[in-house]
Amino acid sequence: MKQLFIIHGYQANPNSHWFNWIAQKIQHYGYTTDIIELPNPHKPEYHAWYDTLKHHMDHELNDQTIIIAHSLGVITTLNYLARLSKAPNIKALILISGFHEKLRNLPELDAFISQTIVSNINAQHILALAATNDPIVDNAASNRLSQLLNINTINIEHDGHFLAEEGYTSFEFLWTQLQHILNNKKD
């Protein structure tokens, strides 16, 4: 089954930002989308977020699965995938404004972050996208996560965190990258 999972971040929900826009775009390729609603996004709890991913994604991942995660959703997704006893080789994992370490400007997330683990992921394609000047997740933090995963970060010239209030109700660069994956094209 061709399935896209979108994992939102801190203080977001399934209707935030560019999530529904990308879900509509990928329908053309025969994909259904589950924009997973994580509980209590303003005070996220590690176990609740992990259990929600487990509920939605267990036994659903296959070689056609694509996962797009944003911000705190990135570390949540990586943690979930790292804890699978037998992780399938999913089609793609796209990490947007990702990080795996405590953030100086968001100490309220320290307990959540300290419980997560990150390890190599079994995916045909892994992309990391980051803004050059992200006030929430510093570009250097995204680059360190990419180094840990042995991938390169694609840095996008942007002063922000890819949020709707910054104009990101659509995300053309992401869609172009996704089309390359879906059409099996190289950049």
TrEMBL record:
For this protein, the record's Gene3D superfamilies field holds: alpha/beta hydrolase
- EC class (word): hydrolase
UniProt keyword terms in alphabetical order = Hydrolase
Taxonomically, the superkingdom here is Bacteria
Q: What is its EC number?
A: 3.-.-.-
Q: Where are the transmembrane segments?
A: none
One GO molecular-function entry:
hydrolase activity
Q: Which Pfam families match?
A: Ser_hydrolase
Q: What is this protein called?
A: Esterase
Starting at the broadest rank, the lineage of the source organism is: Bacteria, Bacillati, Bacillota, Bacilli, Bacillales
